[in-house]
Amino acid sequence: MGTLIQLVVDGLAMGSVYGAIALAIVLVNQSTGMINFAQGGMAVLSAYLAFTFLGLGLPLIVAILLSVAASFLIGALIERFLMRRFMGGAEDTQVVVTVGLLTLLTGICGWLWSYNNLQFPSLFPSSAFTFLGAAISWRSFGTFLVIAGIMVLLQLLFRQTKLGLALRAVADNRQSASFAGLPVGRLLMVGWGLAAALGAVAGALVAPRLSLTPGMLDTTLVYALAAVILGGITSPVGVVVAAWLIGVLENLAAVYVPIIGHDLKIAVPFILLFVVLLLRPQGLFGRKTVVRV
């Protein structure tokens, strides 16, 4: 029983890492209507900015807050001077642009800070406590609580605030939102800025666990995209629950399913994804899209 609980706890901790990036992807989609494949690269850049602020002698929390503010500005500028040039074009073109942006950001991070592993300090103590026979690190527990809190805040943002409703209106139909008097351009900048700021938080949470490198979130981004599709891209709660589910199931399969083991556990989320899409194409928590013809 102790082993089972430990596997579940470790899975929830790793799933929180996936959920951090998945939430940023959902935020961009709910604000702009597109998928941002560069979200991982933006989070890495934010982590390097925080690392640079730390090098100036600033406290960790101050360095992270400054990186969040800087990331908001960078995200807004990327939307204004890059993504807006492709507004109104084919969606495939926008997706390709974000993939290119991911490559560019990774290269910039490697050029400025090198490709060596850097140690990023954690907001939480490295010690652990015992619960039902399982050792739970304060770092994993803190990450879990932060992601759960952000999940709730995003759900409230999109469902209960005027800003969230305006962002969703722009994502659904920019032309209609413009006719209704909404400042579409500024709202798109805010959407990208908020997603970049959330990516900064994700980067600060992930970097101590994975070590800071330009490609530290490459694999995590794949898992995050799986969580987005599995949970439903319209639901912040859904993608986080899906990320936790992926983390737990891959841990359990690695230990209790001999044919999978640790070498093939990466296939678990995609098997789960295949089954869910067959039964519920909109995802576990997503809503069906109705198109009027």
Automatic annotation (TrEMBL):
Compartments, as annotated in UniProt: Cell membrane
Organism: Citricoccus muralis
Pfam families documented for this protein: BPD_transp_2
Signal sequence segment: none
Superkingdom per UniProt: Bacteria
Membrane-traversing stretches: 7-28, 48-74, 95-116, 136-158, 179-201, 221-246, 253-279
InterPro entries: ABC_transp_permease, BCAA_transport_permease
Designated name of the protein: Branched-chain amino acid transport system permease protein
UniProt-listed GO biological process terms: amino acid transport
PANTHER family (UniProt xref): ABC TRANSPORTER PERMEASE PROTEIN, BRANCHED-CHAIN AMINO ACID TRANSPORT SYSTEM PERMEASE PROTEIN LIVH
Family: Belongs to the binding-protein-dependent transport system permease family. LivHM subfamily.
Keywords, alphabetical: Amino-acid transport, Cell membrane, Membrane, Transmembrane, Transmembrane helix, Transport
One GO cellular component term: plasma membrane
GO molecular function terms attached to this record: transmembrane transporter activity
Topological category with respect to the lipid bilayer: Multi-pass membrane protein
Matching CDD domains: TM_PBP1_LivH_like (cd06582)
